[in-house]
């Protein structure tokens, strides 16, 4: 048994604990580490892995996305909707259906609207008591590429990406790449 020369001193890329020092998050990690180890449930392993993630990799989930999930799929009706992120309000949605949602955080207005509709908001420790193996739950995630910064990634000619421009006026980025007479036109 020799030394792996190619991968010698190479760290694994995935997190094995959260970088955050939030004591409540660390307690949740401790709880779900136990559940992932002692139950045969894949659900607990997924929750544990998502608790490790950075905030950018835990995009928020709106109430309308949750309502759409429940209304379009009859199989998820009456189940607990679980998301390892923040649940935000959607003012465009006029009526909120009765929902049971478990999440890391809720915005104040989202929490009020769920409770006013006769629904329930759960924390992950409450969820662990109610569904220790993740039975009758629906696990959802937010859209990761919705951040404004994603519009700029992969910039180049003919890529239709958003340039970092100070302003959108006459004097800003209107020459090369914007007209045929100056090199090329995108």
What attributes characterize this protein structure?
186 residues, alpha/beta, 13% strand
Note down, in words, how this protein is organized.
The chain is of the alpha/beta class and 186 residues long. Helices cover 28% and strands 13% of the residues. The chain is built from 5 helices and 5 strands, in the order ααβαββαβαβ. Strands 1, 2, 3, 4 and 5 form a 5-stranded parallel beta sheet that branches. The protein is flat and about 70 Å long.
**Largest sheet at a glance?**
5 strands, parallel
Q: What is the percentage of strand-forming residues?
A: 5-15%
Distinct helical segment count = 5
pLDDT below 50 for ≥5 consecutive residues: which ranges?
none
DSSP, total strands: 5
Radius of gyration: 22 Å
Helix-strand sequence? HHEHEEHEHE
Overall pLDDT, averaged? 94
Structural class assignment? alpha/beta
Estimate percent helicity: 25-40%
Instruction: Name the shape in a single word.
Output: flat
| Terminal-residue CA separation | 57 Å
């Amino acid at each position: 048994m020799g030394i792996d020369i190619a991968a010698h001193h190479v760290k694994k890329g995935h997190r094995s604990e959260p970088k955050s020092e939030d004591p409540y998050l660390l307690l949740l990690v401790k709880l779900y580490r136990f559940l992932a180890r002692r139950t045969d449930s894949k659900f607990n392993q997924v929750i544990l892995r998502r608790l490790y993630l950075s905030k950018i990799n835990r995009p928020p989930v709106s109430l309308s996305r949750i309502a759409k999930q429940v209304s379009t799929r009859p199989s998820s009706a009456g189940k607990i909707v679980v998301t390892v992120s923040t649940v935000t309000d959607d003012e465009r949605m006029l009526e909120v259906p009765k929902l049971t949602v478990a999440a890391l955080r809720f915005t104040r207005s989202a929490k009020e609207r769920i409770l006013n509709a006769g629904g329930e908001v759960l924390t992950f420790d409450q969820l662990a008591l109610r569904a220790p193996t993740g039975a009758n739950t629906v696990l959802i995630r937010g859209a990761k590429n919705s951040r404004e910064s994603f519009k700029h990634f992969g910039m180049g000619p003919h890529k239709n990406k958003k340039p970092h421009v100070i302003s959108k006026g006459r004097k800003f980025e209107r020459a090369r790449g914007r007209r045929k007479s100056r090199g090329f036109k995108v």
